[in-house]
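Shipment paperwork, digital attachment
Item: protein structure file
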Amino acid sequence: MSKTILILGIGNLLMGDEGFGVHLANELSKKSLPDTVEVLDGGTGGFHLLEFFESHDRVIIVDATLDDKPPGTIRILKPRFAQDFPQSMSTHDIGMRDLVNSLQLLGKMPEIDLIVVSISSIQQQGIYLSNDIAESLPKVINEIQKMLFVNTPV
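Attachment content:
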């Protein structure tokens, strides 16, 4: 049986750059992906996402973060525990950390990859990404495609 992969875009679409993960999920859902891959707009996270984590072998989370790095900086992390997530995971930090803690307690922790894009603020209102952050979108999609197809025979 093939392993299933969830690509989970997290963020608040109404808060500009903070909605990066949602924009990513929307763009990626237009791409041709293997049948074993599901793309989900996870909104602002929370415990309603627990079932999606439990039903996949691997989860690739994409989110914006406030980390004092230049806007548009992309980092790929391999968190194993809630404390491994960046300190400033945007407006839903507590919900995602609590979710990971719950998965660990239940013994249902999937393999997790975390892709974060640095933003400068979560105060802006609007549904559009700033130029620096919008330019990161195709780069993150490229990274995800590499992650998905790295073990695919040519």
